[in-house]
Amino acid sequence: MSTSYVHLNVENKVGYIEFYNPPHNALPSSLLATLTETIETAAADPSIAVVVLQSGGDRTFCAGASFEELIAISNPEQGTVFFEGFANVINALRNCPKITIGRVQGKAVGGGVGLVAATDYCIATAHSDIKLSELTIGIGPFVIEPAVTRKIGLSAMSQLSLEASTFFSAQWAHKKGLYMKISPSIETLDAEVKKLAEQLCGYNPEALLKLKNTFWEGTEHWTELLKKRAAISGSLVLSDFTKSQLKNYK
C-alpha cells in the first residue's frame, strides 16, 4: 500500500473505520479531518451499532502527527489548528453515541496513544508498545492528556510523558488499563475484535447508549478544553528549543 486513505466498511452492523498513511501511519491534518468526518458519519448511520477504529498495514498503529506539517508551522494560529486535528478525532470518538473498539496491531506514539485512549474498549497485540515522545522536541502531550489520564491514571501518565524517550511495552499498557486484552497475533486480534463487536450489536442499543454516556460523564467540557490545550502546543512548537530540535528531522 502506498496511498493514504480513510475507509468505512459496514459488516454485520459493525462500522470498521480504517485509516492509513505510509510509512508509519503518521497522520497529516487532512487525514485527521477526514477521520473525524468518518467517525461522525458512522455515529449518525442507523445501520451501524458498534464502531471499530483500526489502521492499515501490519506494523505501526499510529506514529502520531505528521512531522512535515509540524516543521512547517510558522505562527501560533497555524500551530493551534494543527494540534486541533487529534483533538477533533478524540472528541468525535467521545461524542459518538455508539461503543467504539480500538484494534491496535502495532506501536502507538504521541497522538496515536490518544486515539487508543479515546476508544471505549481496546484490544492490542503484544507488539503494541506505546511512547509519548513530545517532550523530546520541546512540546508536550497536552491535547491527548485528558484522554490518556482518564484511562491509565495521573501517575502512569506522568511516567509515560516524562520518560519521553522510552517505549513502554504492550504488557505495561495492559496492566495500566489502556489495553483490555493482548492478542498473540494479528489474526487472533481480528477474531477477538469481530467477536466482541458483533456480540455488542446484539445488546439493547438504548442500554449501550446510556452506558456510553456513563463512561464519559464529566467530560462535557472537553470541546473547549482540548482547544485550549491545542493552543498551548501551538505556541510551544514555535519556541527556539523546539525549532532547534525539529532541525534534526529535516
Describe the structure.
By secondary structure, this protein is of the alpha/beta class. It has a single domain, classed as Alpha-Beta Complex (2-enoyl-CoA Hydratase, Chain A, domain 1), CATH 3.90.226. Helix content is 49%, strand content 15%. The strands form two sheets. The chain has a six-stranded mixed β-sheet with strand order 1-2-3-4-6-8, with helices on both faces. β2, α1 and β3 form a beta-alpha-beta unit. α5 crosses α6.
CATH superfamily: 2-enoyl-CoA Hydratase, Chain A, domain 1
Overall CATH class: Alpha Beta
Mean pLDDT: 96
Strand content: 15-25%
Q: Characterize the quaternary organization of these chains.
A: single chain
Radius of gyration in whole Å, from Cα? 17 Å
Give the domain tally: 1
| Count of beta strands | 8
Q: Helix and strand string, N-terminal first? A: EEHEHHEEHEEHHHEHHHH
